[in-house]
Amino acid sequence: MTEPLLHVRDLSVTYPLRRGPLDMMTGKPGRLEAVIEATFSLQAAQTLAIVGESGSGKSSLGRAILGLETIAGGEVRFRGQPIGPASLASLRREAAMVFQDPVSSLSPRRSVGQLIGEPFRIHGLTNRDVKAEVLRLLALVGLPGSMADRYPHQISGGQARRVGLARAVALDPKLIVADEPTAGLDVSVQAEVLNLMRRLQDQNGMAMILITHNISLIRHVAERIAVAYLGRIVEEGPAGALLSAPAHPYTAALIAAQPHPDPDRRRTAPPILGETPSLLARPKGCEFRSRCPVAMDICASQAPLSRGDGTGRVVRCHLTADKETGT
After folding, report:
1. Domain housing 198
2. Which residues are CB-contacts of 304 (< 8 A; sequence separation ≥ 6)?
């Protein structure tokens, strides 16, 4: 296999916490672990979806990959080169982010045309006809040229998503990280946005990381899926295999929880139990055990290791280990 476009190895992201005297006496940790030792690779022109509930570390992971969050440990390699402070400028020329809230990510003081043209000015591409580029990019995302004179408060959420995409693809990046690109949109608009992203990917040959809590949305979009829980990737592998035969109980529960148009269809997996534990009070052993319908005794005392199954899938679960050893 060729060298991946992006390789993330043991990536961790932590945030400092303010602690008062009482917090110190009660043992409140001084740092919050948002992402813990995430590892995966992404090939050129491939799409990886990172899925999980709120608080699973998906957004922190996506932002850390692009240098928007400080990495506490591990490594990110882009085109074979490690990403650090000295290489961030070149990375941001070839990689871009589509933020979760499309309207608030656009400056209200700038017109749509100025916002879309901003990447050219930031990277000093003064030889480009920026006005012509803006019109080209608007057409590319299905918006009329007259939209260039409007301001963010004058456009809809769906239009703001398209403007964010136009900004992101302005410099023909090799990688797009899209954080909840369909959140808050009607179902029909969600499909339009996903189809647009897929079309842009086909035209530009870029790789994509889609961050979402809705696993059903990426069924026909992603080649690979990474499932995150409490900052850890608990299962990662080919989308078709993972969706048809999930190996981790959390993945199975996420899939079963998605609404289905057939009211007579029965669930094939137990629902997710209880509430997500606090990141400041992680369960011992397997962190999913307090909500897992098939938890075993070993889950309470020993954290599972990530294991590959030889088919390109990696799973962090004691059940997988039992199947491998026949116990």
Report:
1. 6-229
2. 286, 316, 317, 318, 320, 321
